[in-house]
Specification:
Chain lengths: ~210, ~70
């Protein structure tokens, strides 16, 4: 897949500056770089590789920046390019050898059982609550800090698998082939990651009530 | 009846693979009786939506518009 051809056309808002000026706006560019670098480093665990991926994505973005009037559209598109760059690095697999070995260790005999009683039913105080309007949170910067903290709190390999699956959207079989793990191994790791992540988000965000 | 540990595992797996008819039926029954797992099931979709938003660089400045955001609500 060609990294630069992925994003589809975006609706444009008339009356705003064309996208090129966003990428020449030093403040916007600086913030964008920081955010991209954080995103790439989280997944590649290597600053140099992350730096390269961000650089390539930004260069690719500059070529077509003029077609995006809204900053958010431009940003979506830049991140789509970055995701493809990260996927390329992950597919090469060299970074993952260590991870795949760790996967087979019993890294996480963690106490997920504590969430459930001896019969396998939710402990009363662990039972998931309803989240009201969860997608409102994505517009909240504080929410993203909580999300990143929760992600960082996961065992490393669970976090990486979750990100490969849900950020980069690699298919299950591709992840399994790259890491040389079984499908059931992948599924159990994703299950644990989701259990932990939802618990963390509930405790640290959704139970705190609606914030603005 | 299937317990919550089994139900949540299936609810996570449902994001990855097609569940068998038997599993789907048992799960449906469990979720009908269990609000915790019902919420958990919705949160699996929400987690995925949140992650996709994160991977688009979503933030307050450029709230990424997703027409399908509300599909689970
Ligand atoms: Zn249950």
């Amino acid at each position: 897949m060609n990294s630069e051809s992925t994003p589809v056309s975006q609706p444009e808002t008339p009356g705003e500056d064309p996208g090129t000026s966003h990428l020449t706006d030093p403040t916007f560019l600086k913030e964008l770089r920081v955010q991209m670098l954080k995103f790439a480093t989280l997944q590649l665990r290597d600053e140099a590789l992350a730096e390269d991926a961000v650089q390539e994505a930004l260069i690719g973005a500059l070529k077509n920046a003029a077609s995006f009037n809204r900053r958010s559209a431009l940003k979506t598109w830049v991140f789509a390019i970055l995701k493809n760059k990260i996927a390329d690095v992950l597919r090469k697999g060299s970074r993952m050898i260590e991870a795949s070995r760790l996967l087979r260790d019993n890294e996480d005999e963690e106490n997920l059982d504590a969430l459930f009683d001896t019969k396998g039913f939710w402990q009363v105080d662990e039972r998931p609550a309803a989240w009201s309007h969860p997608m409102k949170s994505v517009k909240n910067d504080h929410f993203w800090r909580v999300f990143e903290a929760c992600l960082s709190g996961l065992p490393e390999n669970q976090a990486r698998l979750f990100m490969m699956r849900e950020f980069i959207e690699l298919e299950s079989n591709e992840i399994c082939e790259t890491l040389n793990i079984s499908t059931s191994n992948l599924h159990v790791m994703l299950y644990r990651a989701r259990l932990r992540l939802r618990e963390c988000l509930e405790n640290r965000w959704f139970n705190e009530g609606e914030r603005s | 009846m299937m317990n919550c540990q089994q139900a949540t595992r299936l609810l996570s797996d449902a994001q990855e693979r097609e569940l068998s008819l038997k599993d789907r039926a048992a799960l449906k029954f469990h979720v009908m009786m269990c609000s915790g797992c019902r919420n958990f099931g919705k949160q699996m979709d929400t987690l995925s939506d949140i992650a996709h938003n994160y991977a688009k660089g979503s933030d307050s400045d450029g709230a990424v518009q997703r027409s399908d955001d509300e599909r689970h609500e």
